[in-house]
Amino acid sequence: MARVLVVGAGLTGSSCAALLRGATRERVSVWDKARGAGGRMSTSRSARDAACTADLGAQYVSRSAGSRGSFYEELLSHGILKPLSARIEGLVEKEGSCDYVAPQGISSVVKYFLRQSGADVFYEHHVTHITLRDGKWEVSRKMGSPELFDVVILTIPVPQILQLQGDIVNIINERQKQQLESASYSSRYALGLFYEVGARIDVPWAAKYITDNPCIRFISIDNKKRNIDSPEIGPSVVVHTTVTFGREHLDSDPAEVQQLILSHLESLVPSLPKAASVKCQKWRYSQVTKAVPNCPGQMILHTQPLLICGGDGFTCSNFDGCIESAMSLAETVRSHL
Fold this sequence. Notes:
CATH class of the largest domain: Alpha Beta
Distance between the termini: 10 Å
Helix content: 25-40%
Mean pLDDT: 95
Low-confidence stretches: none
CATH topology of the largest domain: Polyamine Oxidase, Chain A, domain 2
């Protein structure tokens, strides 16, 4: 039985792993360098109360006209997604589109696909080297022994693919390298504020896009956005910065960045109570601003054994883009096994 490794437990990696189940008899493993699933669809928990959560990555899922409805219908039928009913000020609604929230946190979408995949999922597995070894891929990580795989699927951000060491450095040809290097991403920070049970946040909206602040672009009262009202769980607030702020402070001290964001937040929402705990998240690769050209969905780096890469860097940074890439990856893997 061949071994398949998916690197990255985000939306593309998890849905690709789920698509491979039943289509092949291979043993699939998923590795991610983080401590949990989600990638940029991450949900964080309060340090004081695990029941209090906030979506620090994607805020909701937008289904455009003509998208692959079966994925949405499956998630809706299992209660993973529900229609967005809360008030979001400044949300631009596109004709024929629908917006959904994840009541259990946006990472529940990724966790659902990982469960469906039946894959062996390992966290804190940070891949560093990919090397050819006796007709297989030897994959090394920061901690632990290298392992051999027959197929490797990379779903990490494109710049992280180019940072990998080993034979992959020479396997990526000059044309491919130029294509990969042309991909670009925006950067931003997200702040999660977690409150004690009983804390009141008195604003007339569940979320709001900010247009006149140099630091803050989006504020969400996350429990209201997800339409959760429980007297036993404290509220949470999410703040996303502007792309300009993220770029200017990309390598600044995180504590200073956090304080800057909090000061701007206080000026925008002065009635906010003091949070019980705060988490500052830096998204170095937040959203794709320019995808890898002429590679819709994926790029084959090596055929025998198969080494392939994909993700939103080959499509676009939304649910549909990740699913399109996952389908392209899974189809290519099936045709090679």
